[in-house]
Design a protein that fits this description.
Elements (H helix, E strand, L loop, with lengths): L1 E8 L1 H5 L1 H13 L6 E12 L6 E10 L5 H7 L6 E3 L20 E3 L3 H12 L5 E3 L5 H14 L22
Parallel strand pairs: 5-6
Antiparallel strand pairs: 1-3, 1-4, 2-3
Bound molecules: flavin-adenine dinucleotide.
Length: 171
């Protein structure tokens, strides 16, 4: 994939950006629409430094014929806004050995614990997750008890229980 940066669209164009971004990719790379298989938005931001607010996109372009990519990248090597899209796929750094007598322990089932347990499982370990609080339905009842009736359940509230604090996050 080829990453194109600094593509500026008006706010009206940014409402439905796909056709405009495809046209921009064709123009920037000197290709016809048939030569482009897909344009994925990697990032959208807004530039409000001038009177007219603009949307600024970074996109990844997949060519219909991926074999063309090296030559196209070489042609635009001097352009800082055209580059190979970085490989951002996360790969597990290690794999669990076939025989694993001990299992890793994850303490807490908030976002950190959930993610730690997930990646350990993806690596082939069999994590044991310990959570001191209650399952989410019960703690929701307890938390509302505090917020609505001012009754604090010390072991089950916004801080403690399945899902961690983020279960009651603002958004
Ligand atoms: C009301 C509220 C609103 C929030 N809103 C937002 C928001 O809008 N956006 C945002 O990004 N962040 C928000 N946050 C912050 C966000 O929730 C935290 O940053 C996030 O939950 C931290 O994740 P964590 O896994 O590190 O810890 P926690 O979510 O705190 O999880 C820790 C877990 O470990 C468990 N635990 C603790 N001690 C033990 C033990 N000894 N044994 C076993 N288990 C244990 C706890 O019960 C808990 O489940 C909010 C937090 C609160 C309280």
């Amino acid at each position: 994939m080829i990453r194109l940066s600094e593509i500026k669209l008006t706010l009206a164009e940014a409402e439905q950006p796909e056709p405009v971004l495809t046209a921009a990719a064709c123009r920037i790379l000197g290709l016809s629409p048939r030569e482009i298989a897909r344009v994925d938005v990697f990032k959208r931001s807004f530039d409000a430094r001038k009177a007219d607010l603009v949307a600024v996109f970074i996109v990844d372009v997949a060519l219909a014929d991926p074999a063309q990519e090296p030559a196209l990248l070489a042609k635009f090597a001097a352009n800082p806004h055209i580059a190979p899209a970085p490989d951002m796929i996360w790969r597990a750094p290690v794999a669990a050995p076939a025989s694993q007598p001990l299992r890793p322990v994850v303490v807490g089932f908030g976002p950190c614990g959930i993610f730690a347990a997930l990646v350990l499982a993806q690596m082939g370990f069999k994590p044991i997750v310990l959570e001191r609080g209650k399952p989410v339905r019960e703690r929701t009842r307890d938390t509302w008890g505090l917020w609505r009736k001012s009754v604090l359940e010390p072991e089950s509230n916004v801080q403690f229980g399945e899902g961690g604090a983020v279960t009651f996050s603002d958004g």
